[in-house]
Amino acid sequence: MNETPLWASESFWKKIAIWVTAGSFVILVILTMDSLSKTGAGSKRVPAYAVINKKIDYQFKTALHKSMPVIGDNEFLFGKEYSEEEARQLVDLGKKTTQTKNCMNCHTILGNGAYYAPDLTKAWLDQGWISGEMRENMMVKFLMDPANNARTFGSNRKMPNLAITEQEAKGIIAFLKWMSSIDTNGFPYNFKTIEAQE
Amino acid sequence: MIEPVALQDFFITFFSAALIILAGASYALLFAWSKVNSHFRIKIAALVSYAVLILSVAELTRAAHFQGYWLIISMAMAVGYFFAPIGIWHLCVKTHADQDLIKTKGGRR
Amino acid sequence: MNTSDLNGIIPKSNRLLDKARTYLDDFKAWVNLDSSNLSTGQQLAVKYFTVAVILFFAQLLFGMLAAIQFIYPGFLYEILDFNVNRMVHINAMIVWMLYGFIGSIYWLIEDESGTGIVGLKWANIAFWVLTGAVTLVVLVYLFIQIGPGKDSSLWFINEGREYIEAPRWADLGITAVMLVFFYNVVATFSKGQWSGIGGVLVLDLIALVGLYLAGMFYMTNITHEQYWWWWVIHLWVEATWEVLVGVIMAWSLMKLLGVRRKIVQTWLYIEVALMFGSGILGLGHHYFWIGMPEYWLSVGGFFSALEPIPLVAMVVHAVYDAGVHAFKTVNHPALAWVVAHAFGNFFGAGVWGFMHTLPQINMYTHGTQWSASHGHLSFFGAYATINIAFFYLAIQQWRGGVWMAAGAHHAWRWKWALGLLNAGVVGMTIALLIAGYEQSFIERAVEGSTWGGYFAAQNEPSFQRAMGWRLLFGGITLAGFILLVWDLLTIGKGETRKIPTINQS
Q1: Distance (Å) from the C-alpha of residue B30 to the closest C-alpha of chain A?
Q2: Transmembrane segments in this chain: where (chain A) (predicted)?
Q3: CA nearest C263 in A: which residue?
Q4: Where are chain B's structural domains?
Q5: Cβ within 8 Å, pair B28-C315
Q6: With contacts defined as CB-CB under 8 Å, which chain C residues touch B10?
Q7: CATH of the domain at A186
Q8: Could you read off the pLDDT of C489-504 as tens digits, one per residue?
């Protein structure tokens, strides 16, 4: 019994375990408070929901080694200017719909989810929507009737009909537009937007 | 700030990262084994494993463009993976020190 | 459906029920297990194990369906779409592993505390409530699948958040059941005696339940929502679950190998320090790209580089034990699965994790088949293996403590089950690794992550081939599972040699 030095004893490691766990947790809590305060809707990294009234782009900044969202002039969604509260409600409907339709178990959102369908992080800016003018209409049609407006890119993988209403479709599009304005530390890398193409 | 891996360095990044862990483990394994069975060759093999680890860390540092404070990670891996197995070995020896001194009552079942 | 149909159905269903009862009785007679070999807590534990095995099967079945859809996208289109299959696949996995853990703890606390389970009646009710709730959730997943974009859908159908999709009513129900479980554990230790193992277990369970609460809230802000969502997922699987496995292993080492309590507990504390020390802030590697501040790149990168340290510690300790003490075991299959656990945990969590975790490379690998490759090997290696090992311990006791080591009958079954399951999972992992490498290269690096780039990568012949191999190895895994179940039901049947009692302190 006497041969066991302090640093190899049970009581020593019990204390270490408690201190390490508590210490890590306290640091995590502090970082959490800081992170949440820096990423509320309306912060520099996560714009206010009314950003859906603006033109959004995602451009590579050489000095930063990464792409950054660029918020431009007015570019109303569905031809309407939303107040912050109206925008929040619309984005909220869209966000909720992406959950209740279980989008995440085919798509990835901010890179998290399943890998059976494309990432939605910058879906609003994707070149697949051909041009800024056609985009909104194409997206609404696609969401409401994906089977007949399928965008399979030769893969034969079709999104199923998820009984999305027109209002829900508009909400999803608002959510996607808002999400594309979030500063994601340069993810996805080297992304070429619909704006860059025009 | 990070500089993502260049296209031509993809494979080497995965490879060197995997090799760090594998070499680290094989160094730990061989180090422990050399303590149980003090054979000269096992010690050499342990050191060779560690050399592989250092090379992999250097390669990863290059491929992943570590600079500034990111070099702390490279240092931590080079130093930490050298001393961790030694420390853990001593811990094993000391925690088991009185292993055979006391044999108390049998199992309840 | 008209009434005459209904009239025909009732006697028919009665006859079906009778038939089912006869089959069940025949099955019980064939299996021939004697529950009087088990304590009351252990009898509850084996109920949990039984459901765990059934859910394990569901995991494999729906995984197979999803794997087929990668190759034939029209398969079950608009009947059981990929998202449904994939959701059941991962939910069944999470839940069967939890069932395994809960069962293991009910199994060991009576022995560890030296008294019977306090509140056993409640524990039994909780088991049936939980199992009923899980069944209902799965039925809703399969037959209702999705709902309109309203709160009621989140409450009753699906929360749509990977791994914790269970609707909110089930969240509350699961929490209530967990509180009963928690009460059983705390009250049992309080009535009997506390130990280091008991203390770590209780604190870990508090964390486990508390973290689940963090995942119950709806938020419009996707960045905040994913922040809390990772608290649940990461701090479960990379911290609290690891410690739970540590507790189960610590007890098993004492019972099976006669390792002294003081040593086991010291090492449990060491493991807690290393696991939580690296794992809690290792959470940062999930915060690289979801909108969180840039310092998470450094925090996540640094602590991810530390996460293999506990695994290295295990390697050294294993060599020490093997070299210094020549251990004998009376349960070969359990020992073999523990060895599979050591390797699987090391490769799945350690090597596969570190290969794609640093932000400089994760920028490309995040959200690709890389994650699937890592997920398959690490969940199997870290958790499936240890649960299966415990199933073998349980069945040994259930059979009356019979010999399951050298010279046991039909040993080929567990050996082949072990081989097929491991080969299947490793094969899937390699196939997904190839797919992930190709996807991160073509879609992410070359094509810049557009939808066009995504499909270009998915259509590549090498990706398609990899998906074919994944399906094949999935089939091998399933074959291994079937053999495993057969072996668990029959191992030790007719064995007369008993195990010698092991001295421990």
Answers
A1: 22
A2: 16-36
A3: A10
A4: 7-95
A5: yes
A6: 361, 364, 437, 440-441, 445
A7: 1.10.760
A8: 999 888 888 887 655 4
Backbone dihedral region of C480: left (phi > 0), alpha (psi from -120 to 50 degrees) or beta? alpha
pLDDT grade, residue B108 (50/70/90)?
very low
Q: What is the reported pTM?
A: 0.94
More confident site: C92 or A150: C92
pLDDT at B106: 35
| pLDDT at B98 (0 to 100) | 60
Can you tell me the distance from the alpha carbon of C375 to that of C118, in angstroms, rounded to the nearest whole number?
Answer: 37
Joined tokens for residue B58: 């250097």
Using a pLDDT cut of 90, give the percent of chain C over it: 81
How far apart (Å, rounded) are the C-alpha atoms in residues C195 and A23?
A: 24
DSSP bridge partners of B94: none
The residue segments making up the domain with residue C51 are: 37-194
Q: Are A14 and A96 part of one and the same domain?
A: no
Q: Residue C475, exposed/middle/buried by CB under 10 A (0-12, 13-18, 19+)?
A: middle
Q: Evaluate whether residue A29 is within a structural domain.
A: yes
pLDDT tens sequence across C363-391: 999 999 999 999 999 999 999 999 999 99
C-interface mutation test, from A151, A187, A189, most C Cβ less than 10 A away: A187
The answer to whether the beta carbons of residues C157 and C77 sit under 8 Å apart is: no
- Helix boundaries (H) for C440-497: 451-459, 461-490
Are C132 and C248 in the same domain? Answer: no
Which residue range is the domain that position A55 belongs to?
49-197
